[in-house]
């Protein structure tokens, strides 16, 4: 789900919205960090930061990976988010985990073994299990990693075998 800033009617009831979307199969939450803290008006900034904290806490409770997105189509939008500014620092590790999860999922999805694949649902029926697996893959797998062939061969034997192929 692409989270905006918590100010819409739907996002003001984010717990209900995410429950509905989880039932439809969403796999994570995308947040555009800049629009949730880099706001001139102090009251608006405080509101959007409070909403962001609630969204991030909810994602954690629901075991939803959070991926940082950046709007490249908005004039004046920065190209890189400042994850070390005081407002975003509390979420740095969450965004880091989300990026690793996304990379692990993407690398294996190219082989037909992504987070929503029949393989993943069979071997890792719970979202928490799938997220842990793709996070572990994403933390160690490098782009163009020659170990990927070993991982692909090991996937038939299950997630532990695939992770062992990365060691």
Walk me through the structure.
The protein contains seven helices and three strands; from the N terminus they run βαβαβααααα. It is mainly alpha-helical. It has a three-stranded parallel β-sheet with strand order 1-2-3. Helix 2 (42-62) links the parallel strand 2 and strand 3 (66-68). Helix 6 packs antiparallel against helix 7. The radius of gyration is 17 Å and the shape is globular.
Helix content: 40-55%
Distance, first to last CA: 33 Å
List unreliable stretches of 5+ residues: none
The major sheet is characterized as:
3 strands, parallel
Task: Give a quick summary of the entry.
This protein is mostly helical. Helices cover 51% and strands 5% of the residues. Helix 2 links the parallel strand 2 and strand 3 (66-68).
Describe the structure using short key phrases.
three-stranded parallel sheet, 51% helix, single chain, mainly alpha, 3 strands
